[in-house]
Amino acid sequence: MAGVVVFGVLFVVVAATLFAGVKTVPQGQEWVVERLGKYHSTLKPGLNFIIPYIDIVAYRVSTKGDVLSVGAQEVITRDNAVIITNAIAFIKVTDPTRAVYEIQNYEYAIQNLVMTSLRAIIGQMDLNSALSEREHIKAKLQDSISKEVATWGIYVQSVEIQDIKPSESMQRAMEQQASADRFKQATILEAEGKREATIREAEGRLEAAKREAEAQVRLAEASAKAITDISEAIKDRDLPAVFLLGDRYVTMLQKLAASPNAKMVILPADLPAAVRGMMGKG
Fold first, then answer.
1. How far apart are CA 213 and CA 220, in angstroms?
2. In this predicted model, what pLDDT tens digit does every residue of 58-107 receive, in sequence order?
3. 86 with 119: CB under 8 angstroms?
4. Model pTM?
5. What's the CA gap between 169 and 202, in Å, rounded?
6. C-alpha distances out from residue 212 to 199, 203, 224, 255, Å
7. How far apart are CA 76 and CA 121, in angstroms?
8. Is 45 exposed, middle or buried (0-12, 13-18, 19+ CB in 10 A)?
């Protein structure tokens, strides 16, 4: 009976030992094996064997792509503006041995590396550039952290800037500035409109004065020509002036007669004598 018990115990121990030495690694994982406390090997997906009690699976590392979220943080730009930004990083472990032995916690390390790199990159940009050049920030960020994490056996597939916006206080300041700029622009446009209207009005008066002066010159030229023609026709030096003065005298009387206040207009019986009298020749 004792022999059966011993055999049974030995059978269980042997079975447990054999079972402990057989390892089946699932696809998408690699296991790091340590022998007596030191790195020994890395088990690939599939059936693997280790020496029980001497070898142990120290780490089970996923080789699938992973997503790390980097929380929102305040970043100060080169022109001292405060903006809020966050990001996500898509990573993949390419060397499980280095990923577990080169860094204590690679996920935490990468999150902090993204944060510090993001602050450094945006800190070299002004506010407008930081808000408008997201692709440039993304490219520089990925290039920066890729070099660092490569030493940890990790490949950065992509880094995306989820959000980048001014802080609440900065947004209020920008809104106030935009409002002030719009008011300033409206005031300038109104002043320019008044100035343009004044210039056009002055130009209109100047053009009217020029045309009036031109008309007066032409009228004087026409009168002079008329006097010359009459003088040549009648060969009398006094008559042209008498005729012209008489003509204007009659015209003035006609206008006076047309006035609403005129009650009656009396024409002199001897108009030529009256005109000569005005000339002092009567």
1. 10
2. 999 999 999 999 888 888 888 888 888 999 999 999 999 999 999 999 99
3. no
4. 0.58
5. 49
6. 20, 14, 18, 21
7. 10
8. middle
